[in-house]
Amino acid sequence: MDRAPKHQFDLFYRPDQKVWDGAAGIGLVTAMGRTATDDHGISPLPLDEQFLNQREPTFPETIASDPDCVQWFVDLLAESRSG
User: Fold this and answer.
1) DSSP 3-state assignment of 17?
2) pTM exceeding the 0.85 threshold for the entire prediction
3) 63 vs 9: CA distance, rounded Å
4) Could you tell me which residues come within 8 angstroms of residue 39 by beta carbon, excluding any fewer than 6 positions away?
């Protein structure tokens, strides 16, 4: 019995992502012409020195996909958090 999804949902979301995993994924997504943002739709790039100098730099949230899908998910998160 094949349990593979018939359609793939092309969105990546991870809260509290460590910088090294996150930076690698964000680099790949960007190279593919897609976008990566935080939960407010703001790109983490370029990574600033203050962020990288933290003891354990962590992205609060990472959302990656095509720009329209990322915006849809950012809006969905905002709506779910507003009440």
Assistant:
1) strand
2) no
3) 13
4) 60, 61, 63, 74, 77, 78
Sheet order of strands, 35-37 included: 12-18, 58-65, 35-37
Rounded Cα distance between 15 and 38, Å, is 9
* Per-residue pLDDT tens over the stretch 52-83: 999 999 999 999 999 999 999 999 999 999 97
The whole-angstrom separation of Cα 18 and Cα 44 is: 13
Residue 43's domain comprises 11-82
* Overall domain count for the chain: 1
Q: How confident is the model at residue 83, as a pLDDT?
A: 72
